[in-house]
Amino acid sequence: MAAVGFCGDWFVSTCDKTLVAVHTKQSREPFVFDCSVAEKKPKNTTDDNNRWVVRRCTALVFSHAEDELLVADKSGDVYSFSVVAPQREGELKMGHLSMLLAMTMSPNDKYIMTADRDEKIRVSHLRCPYNIQSFCLGHQQFVSALLVPSTHSHCLLSGSGDGTVKLWEYESGRRLQSWDLTELEETPSSEAEREQKKPTVCRISSSPDGCHIAVLCERVSTVQFFTLELVGTERLTPHSRLCLPHCPLDMTFDPEGRLWVLMDSHDAPLQIYSHRRGYWECDAETPELITVKEAFRPHWETLEASTRTNSRFEHLHKMSFDNVSSYLQKKQQRLEEQQLKRTMTQEKNDKKKKTKKETTPSST
Fold first, then answer.
1. Where are the alpha helices (DSSP H) in 11-107?
2. Which range marks the domain in which residue 70 is found?
3. Which InterPro entries does the UniProt entry name for this protein (predicted)?
4. Residue 275 and residue 283 in contact, taking contact as beta carbons nearer than 8 Å
5. What total number of domains does the chain contain?
6. Burial class (CB in 10 A: 0-12, 13-18, 19+), 317
7. Domain with 82 in it: what CATH number?
8. Which pLDDT tens digit goes with each residue over 59-114?
9. How far apart are CA 222 and CA 96, in angstroms?
10. Spatial separation of the C-alpha atoms in residues 298 and 353, rounded to whole Å
11. Are 126 and 110 within 8 A, CB to CB?
12. Vertex 144: Cα angle to 96 and 255 (nearest 5)
């Protein structure tokens, strides 16, 4: 697994169990942390930098006040860990009946949005999560990505394994719009082909000014861009597509609105794209990219190619089975066998009667 993100001017990336942070504006020593070392520490160790969870984490999000870390796990529970009181135990806030895959918060820290494997998006009050504000329902597969756009704080974007991106008014749970990404392909495909190759949305990201919404799908070498406009009501409009030289693994916008893309490539894993004159152009060698590459490359080269492309979602798709046809076929087969058995029994009885009649002596 590999991921990228920005925290201010810090570029943060993960390569398997190693976290690397590089300052893009100043000449500072990169921060490197080996997560496997922390895992080996005893759980009773007193350390302000470690928190222990019950099950494997599937999503993390800080509150906008940065005083609380919310952790979603594989069993569907959400725990809250205090940043200002590091010795405090994690508090169970809420739970789903299935695995949680994505989580985000409203800009005012009032609501928490959680998405699970069973196609549900739940909007809950953060301070009292048992108080559910709404459900956003409509996806046909697991929900894998959530985003509250920075300039449209009352809207929610969601992506799913059904290959769609949906726009919601999350307080009411009302769906405003839905886009099937297979319909936006440059080479149109038939309906049967679209059903077979539904892409999985793995990341939805917004530029700082909210002008560009980027959607990344797993194992698809393009990035789909949308614009979110207020025309009476919010409308999500396809804008352009960025074709990449390699399969992308993750992406993020920096504070200047440039798109950083991490790709499955040994030679050039990181690329920066800037929006100029209506098009996204590659910035080959910027000072920031050179600085990040120097710190990032040693850790990237130790990451095996098979590990880089591991999928989080490939085993989560729900398969549909035509049980009715199978049942009717077996029923018909059973009826035919019963009919054949009755016919054979009848023929056997008729044969016995005929034989008995022939062997019975006639009276004089």
1. 35-39
2. 50-190
3. Trm82, WD40/YVTN_repeat-like_dom_sf, WD40_repeat_dom_sf, WD40_rpt
4. no
5. 1
6. middle
7. 2.130.10.10
8. 999 999 999 999 999 999 999 999 988 888 889 999 999 999 999 999 999 999 99
9. 33
10. 93
11. yes
12. 120
